[in-house]
Amino acid sequence: MLIDLFNETWKELEDGTKKHSHPFRTCTLATSEISGGIRQRTINFRGLTKRKTLLFYTDLRSSKIEQIKKNPKGSVLFYNHSVQLQIFLSGIFKIHLEDSLWNDHVVNIEGKSINDYNTQYAPGKPIKNPIAVTRTKDLNFAVLELIPDTIEYLKLRDEPGRIRAVFKLKDEEWEKTFLIP
Question: Looking at the whole model, is its pTM more than 0.90?
Answer without folding.
Answer: yes
